[in-house]
Amino acid sequence: MQATSSAINASSTTSTQVSSVRHNWTLAEVNALFALPFNDLLFQAQTVHRAHFTPNEVQISTLLSIKTGACAEDCKYCPQSGHYNTGLERERLLEVEKVLTQAQAAKDKGASRFCMGAAWSNPKQRDMPYIIEMVRGVKAMGLETCMTLGMLDSDQAKTLATAGLDYYNHNLDTSPEFYGEIITTRTYQDRLDTLSHVRDAGMKVCCGGIVGMGESANDRSALLMQLANLPEHPQSVPINMLVKVKGTPLENVDDLDAFEFIRTIAVARIMLPESHVRLSAGRSRMNEQMQALCFFAGANSIFYGDKLLTTENPEADADMLLFKKLGINPEQRQDVSDEAHELALADAIKEQQNPPLYHAAG
Ligand code: SAM
Ligand code: DTB
Ligand code: SF4
């Protein structure tokens, strides 16, 4: 990609200017950042990063699939969609006790946040008591909690917030223009509505997307523009590289150029200066040097543990070794202490003394 004259203007903008939190990005401005010479872009991203975060710290989250496969949605990238035959073994909602055992193992391995994901379009009311027990139990262990359960209505968002859920993950996935090529069973607006329920309920938002799905460079810019122009920047922004799974419609899509991926991280860092940018799915196919460049470009969060939801992730030991080589330290959890959370914690500790719930429904 060649540097254009507008890109040169973006390059000469001072880091103070580019690092302010803005919600009025234009596509031309985002494209100009992407078009910067690689070193100029990475230098700018690293400068913004250092203005907002402790350098050499990376937040680590561990994922668990609490309900696997047979999803009603038709997301073309997803091994869990019931529309495609990926040979994935379906699993009903896990028992609360099993989830807590996994959370403890993640904590023992050093994770500060535990993210629970379900292959649902949206949670059903009958599932909510179990979900709430999971949030309370994981919180009581001193871990931050995150869930991704599909669309939420405003009551469900409030219920989860009251139970003490810290983060809700719901991705925009791609640009509004490319979205219809990837998902037909729910709209972009449905996603924006869920995000607004999550924000209104007072939870932190984890929202990002996937690249490498055959989208154009303009689509990547438009996705970042959507994220940065939300009423509040998501506190956490996962940038996933498509994991190509056999049986999904995207299994044979062309690889995205590695530099284009690193540029996407850098532009995200500049546009979302106060957000944690997560180097998310796809790390298993990235070598150490590529991951190191992503950290230099401003990624400061990863999924940690040898499995994402259903696909592989680097071994935890390999990640710790990489951190050691790079002088990176895992970020300590940021303490959240509001009244609702304190109450949830006390409740959870009390409920730990009662027998756990077992779930029969799917
Ligand atoms: N079912 C819920 C939903 O979609 O809202 C939550 C779980 S879903 C698996 C969470 C996110 O995982 C998706 O929005 C997508 O961004 C990401 N994801 C799923 N399959 C992926 C793949 N093959 N490669 C990269 N990211 C993927
Ligand atoms: C996100 O943005 N990426 C994670 C998490 N949020 C839930 C999921 C990645 C899933 C990759 C495919 C799989 O393992 O099933
Ligand atoms: Fe279902 Fe989520 Fe996969 Fe889409 S991404 S098919 S909603 S599990």
From TrEMBL:
<feature type="domain" description="Radical SAM core">
    <location>
        <begin position="56"/>
        <end position="283"/>
    </location>
</feature>
<keyword id="KW-0004">4Fe-4S</keyword>
<feature type="binding site">
    <location>
        <position position="206"/>
    </location>
    <ligand>
        <name>[2Fe-2S] cluster</name>
    </ligand>
</feature>
<keyword id="KW-0408">Iron</keyword>
<dbReference type="InterPro" id="IPR007197">
    <property type="entry name" value="rSAM"/>
</dbReference>
<dbReference type="InterPro" id="IPR013785">
    <property type="entry name" value="Aldolase_TIM"/>
</dbReference>
<dbReference type="InterPro" id="IPR058240">
    <property type="entry name" value="rSAM_sf"/>
</dbReference>
<keyword id="KW-0479">Metal-binding</keyword>
<dbReference type="InterPro" id="IPR002684">
    <property type="entry name" value="Biotin_synth/BioAB"/>
</dbReference>
<dbReference type="InterPro" id="IPR010722">
    <property type="entry name" value="BATS_dom"/>
</dbReference>
<dbReference type="Pfam" id="PF04055">
    <property type="entry name" value="Radical_SAM"/>
</dbReference>
<keyword id="KW-0411">Iron-sulfur</keyword>
<comment type="pathway">
    <text>Cofactor biosynthesis; biotin biosynthesis; biotin from 7,8-diaminononanoate: step 2/2.</text>
</comment>
<dbReference type="InterPro" id="IPR006638">
    <property type="entry name" value="Elp3/MiaA/NifB-like_rSAM"/>
</dbReference>
<feature type="binding site">
    <location>
        <position position="278"/>
    </location>
    <ligand>
        <name>[2Fe-2S] cluster</name>
    </ligand>
</feature>
<keyword id="KW-0808">Transferase</keyword>
<comment type="function">
    <text>Catalyzes the conversion of dethiobiotin (DTB) to biotin by the insertion of a sulfur atom into dethiobiotin via a radical-based mechanism.</text>
</comment>
<feature type="binding site">
    <location>
        <position position="75"/>
    </location>
    <ligand>
        <name>[4Fe-4S] cluster</name>
    </ligand>
</feature>
<dbReference type="InterPro" id="IPR024177">
    <property type="entry name" value="Biotin_synthase"/>
</dbReference>
<feature type="binding site">
    <location>
        <position position="146"/>
    </location>
    <ligand>
        <name>[2Fe-2S] cluster</name>
    </ligand>
</feature>
<keyword id="KW-0001">2Fe-2S</keyword>
<keyword id="KW-0093">Biotin biosynthesis</keyword>
<feature type="binding site">
    <location>
        <position position="115"/>
    </location>
    <ligand>
        <name>[2Fe-2S] cluster</name>
    </ligand>
</feature>
<protein>
    <recommendedName>
        <fullName>Biotin synthase</fullName>
        <ecNumber>2.8.1.6</ecNumber>
    </recommendedName>
</protein>
<comment type="similarity">
    <text>Belongs to the radical SAM superfamily. Biotin synthase family.</text>
</comment>
<feature type="binding site">
    <location>
        <position position="78"/>
    </location>
    <ligand>
        <name>[4Fe-4S] cluster</name>
    </ligand>
</feature>
<dbReference type="Pfam" id="PF06968">
    <property type="entry name" value="BATS"/>
</dbReference>
<comment type="subunit">
    <text>Homodimer.</text>
</comment>
<feature type="binding site">
    <location>
        <position position="71"/>
    </location>
    <ligand>
        <name>[4Fe-4S] cluster</name>
    </ligand>
</feature>
<keyword id="KW-0949">S-adenosyl-L-methionine</keyword>
